[in-house]
Amino acid sequence: MVTPRRGTTTPRARSTEQATPGPGSAGGRRRVSVSGVGTALGAAVVAALLVAGCGGAQTATPLVPGTGTGATSTSTTTASASGGTGAPNAPPAVPAHGAYLGAWLHPTAATSGQSSFAEEQANVPTVLAATGRPLGLLHVYSPWARPAPVSQLRAVVGDGSVPILDWGCGPDVTQVAGGADDSLISAYAEALKSFQGPVFLRWCWEMNLVGSHPQVGGPSRFISAWDHIRAVFRSVGASNVSFVWCPAVAGVDPTPYFPGASEVDWIGVDGYDRTGGQTFASLFGAFVNTWQGQGKPLMVAETGASGSSQAAFIDSIGADAPALPAVKAVAYFDAPGPADTWQFTPAGLVAFGHLAATPYFHPE
Q1: 180: which of 223, 265, 308, 326 is 20 to 30 A away, CA to CA?
Q2: Predicted local confidence at residue 69, as pLDDT
Q3: Whether the predicted model's global pTM rises above the 0.85 cut
């Protein structure tokens, strides 16, 4: 039994779903040393969406600023079109009401390592034809050792979205914690700071799927590496970056991997309907009940359903999300995974368009 770290509360429950596939503040607990589209579904889908009345341009609405690595403000401000507070180097805004709606758009890539940003951009127009407005969030994958993809982040902002940057774990998190990769991390942080726009950073997600992440080496090593990366970002002053800690609904209990509320800006989770009978609430309700007491906004960073059950599952997001108000962002995984295919079906894309039209996913 691992004693919760300072800034945490003991979770009351945990989900027992099957393993899911992966694509990818101010303050601190202690001092850490730092050294030197479209999915090709055809015109019939778009025509059906237009008849159904989906869409309507999204207007900028007041949002509460987030709590990125250097932000401290909690007053209500007006959001920019890209989801920030309008000020340079401000973190992503936390909706006071409602939630962001986003996606991972790689309908031919089996895993994030095979994903292509060009493919994602090619699929954006078809999805936007369904939603009638920009997505609130859009995933961008970034391998550990490559430079920060700032040009891709700017393209996402050009799409009208806030980027979720999925940063790979690296080959050995012990090496990260020990400072061997500090030059790489510093350069990455500097690049994101120079980007200036709000960005979510989801490093080493689904760390509790132990078989998928042997390089993590257990909770203590993960937390040491997480803390070290955050310390580097703080030293650089990358206040526009919000760190998203993101386990899977499945896997081992994520509690021992939690770095503490003072070291996390958002709490994310990935989970999929693998039975064909799940709803958004049945899949994520236990996780939300467990973690909402941390006082952090929650994000469903990846979710999906396949085949004939997909449209009903997407409909359940709109029905269930208002009853889970701690969830401030939801992103659909429009891609195949190792265990199933989650790409939008024609009916699923229509349902996603309906979801985007609901007032709850026009956050304030």
Answers
A1: 265
A2: 53
A3: no
